## 1
Amino acid sequence: MSAGSGLEGQAIRQVINRLTADFAATYGSGTVAEVVHRIEHGFADSTVRDFVPVLVERLARAELRTQEPSTEAPPGPGLTTVRESARS
C-alpha cells in the first residue's frame, strides 16, 4: 500500500484533522499538515506500514508541543496565533 492512498491515506487525514483540532489555538491547519506530511515522508521506505499513522501522530504531536508557533492564522474568524496576541 502506498502512502497517501487507501486506508493509510485516510488514517493520515484523520491524524491531520485531530491535530488541527487539538492545536487550533496555536497552529493553522496548513502548519499541522506540513508537519504531519514531513514526518510521514520519513517513513517512505518502511516496509511495514501498519503503524505508520500512529507513529506519525505521536511524533507530530510531540513536535507541535515544542515547536515555536507559526505566524499562520488558525482556522476560524477572529482567531489569532499566540505570537500575534503577544504583539497586541
Note: The chain has one domain: 6-74.
## 2
Amino acid sequence: MQNGPFMKPDGTGWQADGTVSTPAGTFQASHFLQRRTDGTTVDFWLSRDVLPVGLVKLRVVSPNQLESKAELVHAGVGAVPKVTATPVPFDREVMRRQLFAAVADHPPRR
C-alpha cells in the first residue's frame, strides 16, 4: 500500500468492469478501490473512452469520514493534434539549465 497523492493502479484494487454515469454521459469503465494505510479509501473509475487521462469518477473518504468527489462533466471529440516537431527524449539537466536561464533573464520583482 502507498500513501502518496497519486498512486498508479496496479490491478490489485480492481473491483469490476461495467458502466458508470456522470454528467458527461455513461461510460464503460473499470472500477478500482484502494485502501491506504492511513485509513483513507479511494474509489475511482477509469475508461479507455476518455483520453488521455481516463478518469471518469473519483470518490475519496478520509479516516474521519470526510468525503470528496469528482466527476467528468464534459468530454470533447474531434481534437486534431497540432504537434509538428519531432519529440526529443527528456533530459533533466537540459531542463534545469533552461529554467535557470529563464530565471536569470527575468529575476523576480521585489
Note: Helices lie at 92-105.
## 3
Amino acid sequence: MSPGVSVVIPVRNEAPYIARNLEAVLAQDYPPECLEILVADGNVAAAAEALRVEQDRYRLGAGTLLDLLTAQANLTEAQVTQVQARYDYLNARAQLEALVGHSL
C-alpha cells in the first residue's frame, strides 16, 4: 500500500475553481484512498472588512478598543492561516511529486 499524502489547496474567493483543482488532484496516478485533501480558506477578505468596520465604529465612539484589537487579531490570524495553508500546499505537492516521480 502507498503511503498517505495530504494535499492542501489554499483558496481565496475561488469557489468556481475548487472542483477543477480537486479533479486534477484525483486524476494523478496515485491511489485516491491514500490521499487526504484539505481545502483551506483563511477568510482574509472578511476579516479585513470586519477590521474596517470596527475602525469606523471606534472612530465614531460606537466601538471599544477591545473590539478594535480583537478585529485586528482576527485579521492577523486569518493571514497567518493563509500563509500556513500555502506552505502546507507546497509541501504536500512536493511530497506528491516525489511519490509519483514527476512534476505536477
Note: Helices lie at 15-26, 44-59, 65-100.
## 4
Amino acid sequence: MLLKNLKKVTKREVEWRKRVFARDKYTCQEPKCKQKGGYLEAHHIKKKFDYPELKYVIDNGITLCRKCHEKTFFNEKKFEKKYIRINNKMKNYAIPKLSCMPSRRTK
C-alpha cells in the first residue's frame, strides 16, 4: 500500500525548509532558472544520509524548483560545489529563528 511508504515529516524538518525558503526569498537558486514561488523544494547540498549532522543546518540547504531539483538526483556531487558557492554569497541574509530548536541556556 502506498501509505506505508510515506515518511512522517517532523516539525523540525518543516521549520528547516521554511528557513531555507525564506533565506532564498522563495526563489529557485539555480542561476539559469530563478523561478519565483510555485512548487519549490529545499535541497540538502550535502546528502543527509552521509552527513546526518548537517540535516538541519540552514547553510546545507538551497531552494530549487522541482525541475532543477530533479537534475540533482543521483548527481549530487556534480552540484555540491556549485550550490556551496551560491550559499556562501547569501551568508549576510537574516535567517528567521527556528522555533523548534532548543535555545542556549545562559547562567
Note: Residues 95-107 have pLDDT under 50 and may be disordered.
